[in-house]
Amino acid sequence: MTDQGNKQAAKRNARPETTPEHVENPARPGLSRRAFVLGLGASAAFVAGGSLAACTPQTGAGTASTASPNANSNGTGNSPSASADAPDTIQAAAEKPADKQETKDADLVVVGSGIAGMSAAVEASRAGAKVIVLEKHTVTGGDSSICSGNFYCCGSKKQDELGYTDYGTPEEIAQFYFDQSDGDANMDICRLVAENGGEAMDWLVEMGCDFDKKPEEGATDRSMLSTTGGKGLVDTLIAEAEKNGVELMMETRAVEVIMDDGAATGVKARQGSTEYVINAKAVMLACGGFDGQDWSKELYAPGAVGWHTFSSPSNTGDGIELARQAGAMVLLKGGLSQIHLVGHEPLPLNDELSSLRMVNTGVFVTDLGYRCANESMTSQFDYFTPFVQSGRKKFFIICDSQLPEKRLELVKKGVEKAVVNTADTIEALAEEAGLPSYPLVKTVEKYNALCEAGEDADFHKKPEDLQALTQAPFYAIQITPNTNDSFGALAISTKAEVLDENRQPVPGLYAGGTLGNAELFYLRYAVSGASLCMGTVTGRIAAQSALEYARL
């Protein structure tokens, strides 16, 4: 390990604790894309046409996420002061005067230390390349290190050894991804991830990682889980990379892709008051999404501003702006991976009350008392669209005492923890929950009438879930939406090349992981484990392509 690495090693151990579990989403109700675009995508489309400098939000529009720790305030991370006073963009970081400048040389410079970036670093260093990895945060791994470690694939040796062989074919998985995107995905990228996922898992296992089937009712044989979580996967990759001589520079933020005659030849970066010019034969961007701070969500997905987030606070769209400097095509779709939690000060996901967020027989309402969704949705990811379209930040599930015994026990525990309100009438419940009484009463009356008719003409809820709310006491389960990933960034090829506006490769520039997932996802997350699989696959392919380009 380098001296720089030794100085920073102690800062990599602490990680934010636990993370959302994604769930498979085999069926989703339809949605009006036009309605969604009118509610959110227009702002995102505007951003796609210009740079951050041209459309920076109003000062103080967003606040820092409270779900993860912030980096320090030396200009390399997402400091509390930066989030509160002004958006901490790469342009703002680049404009700060540097006290000194240093130059480094590498075959490949990787921006970001998550699963995609570290997979690229390991793949390239194993081939003998000199690799430098830049990480702007105080801890490594980004979202990869705070996720559960789900990995969705087929055909791995590990699955076969464990007897989990009912996983179908790569073509079936590719079609599944495409269908889950409502047809708004790149089928070539769907196939790329599906066809290489099993090999990617075996590659991780060969390094010492281990997996077993996801221990969840209904999980398919494609759904595997790292026995050491996402953090264990990233830590294993980092150990392998450093063994191979990779230099990992912490609290070092890339602020510019160096271009020479249309080709990427390195990056400029800031570490405190030092500017680094890192010359390289190829550049790989793997610096995550844009939902880590409110100011960046305002730029790329304004409908989610004010939501909590599980994501790393360092996810502020840096990769989008770095790639724009190189003339890259940006595919902003406005999508975010969303998970809703119980409580307006959300309880941890692993709390036993977390399951109350999916009470299908209840009524989902906004904090204005109006019904907002089809409560029969099979996945919590389906709630992203109605949540955004409602324009609200707080929600409730209204239910009565006609619940299964175990579920009712949890509801009562929720009352004790002050995340569930209760009363003997809907009017009194509204007062207890801080909801407007008249709209809530009328919402419940309308819903009960639909239940009596046996058909939900408003939201098309499953008939078997239509249960009138008539038995006191009544309950209001507090719900808060959270983000844990973002969709929409760079167009990439099947060689993980960053593409320009004509969908031609930008020479020497590669991307993977979340930065390339606009080609795989649309508005909502397809299935638990798709992101780690895609990150590993695209990271390895980016390194292979970069080595081929550099003739190494």
UniProtKB/TrEMBL annotation:
Pfam families: FAD_binding_2. GO terms for biological process: steroid metabolic process. GO terms for molecular function: steroid dehydrogenase activity, acting on the CH-CH group of donors. Residues 14-25 have a biased composition (Basic and acidic residues). Residues 1-30, 57-87 are annotated as: Disordered. Residues 57-82 have a biased composition (Polar residues). Its cofactor is FAD. Gene3D superfamilies: FAD/NAD(P)-binding domain, Succinate dehydrogenase/fumarate reductase flavoprotein, catalytic domain. Keywords: FAD, Flavoprotein, Oxidoreductase. Residues 107-514 form the FAD-dependent oxidoreductase 2 FAD-binding domain. It comes from the Bacteria. PANTHER family: 3-OXOSTEROID 1-DEHYDROGENASE, FUMARATE REDUCTASE. This is FAD-binding dehydrogenase. It comes from Rubneribacter badeniensis.
